[in-house]
Amino acid sequence: MEFTLKEIADRVGGEVSGDDRTRITGINSLELASEGEISFFTGSPRYKKQVLQTKASALLVSHLLESFSGSQVIVPNPSLAYAGVASLFARPVARHPGISDRAFIAQSAVVGENVSVYPFVYVGEKAQIGDDAVLYPGVFVGDRARVGNRTTLFPNVTVMNDCLIGNEVIIHAGCVIGADGFGFVRDGSKNIKIPQLGMVQIDDRVEIGANSCVDRAALGRTWIRSGVKTDNLVQIAHNVVIGEDSVIVAQAAIGGSVRVGRQVVIGGQAAIGDHLNIADHVMIGSQAGVPKSIPEGQVVSGTPAIPHRLWLKTSSLVARLPEFFARIRGLEQKLSHLENISKNR
Question: From the candidates 63, 96, 172, 238, which is the catalytic residue?
Fold first, then answer.
């Protein structure tokens, strides 16, 4: 697979500086790129040396670089252009030809056109599988569940009964969609299970990272709205709502009945307590502990989470606490000495 530099520039809305007939056979990092490949440079100072040393035939850049002698494609956002070019060279998702005779599909299930169902897939009663969907080995789709058009469920994905998966969704290997939420009530010394009667709804163009869990609602729905992207090992509890185009990084955990707004970014290993409201455009730093709701546009870090700039100031003082303690002890000793002198006069 190869493209001319002009074809690539047209694809990403860029302008070529140099030979637009240059043949490009792949995309790679500045460090690893070889002749015939294109790379990208975002302008970060730490990669300037690699620009001088790269063997790439062309670069995606935001402005013309005198330090690079090869052809360049000038684009407003090299990172975004990189995503577009990478899609040109990405291998398509492998598809089993049709429905394997080693898959189980209930007679009452409805299966669309041009689906790819690998061996050892289970599709339950009255489930629906949309057109062009791909179900890899070990996928379980429960009774009355629905999987949308052009959706891909990678190996060992579980979609429990009554859950709804939209169009063009990607759910990576090992995910569990619709397991019971963590609902118990105490009866003396015993924990009594609260039946989880709701479901999970995942809207269009969502991507769920590997080994993540989205719990079904106690009542109603847990709702992942369109365009949301989650990393691996993310836990989303019962009755959570995640707003459009939000991003959740690996090992983050969101407690029950949390409302997350639109275009929110939640850093890795962050934890959000139950029944909170995280408003639109909030950013939560990695390993933050969030015990209360956050207003729109706030950037927070730390445990408990505080405004990010304040966290930067306070966290920088932690390493100096032994020094401060020693100085305070010294001052206390001097003060005690002065008090003794005063008393003895």
Answer: 238
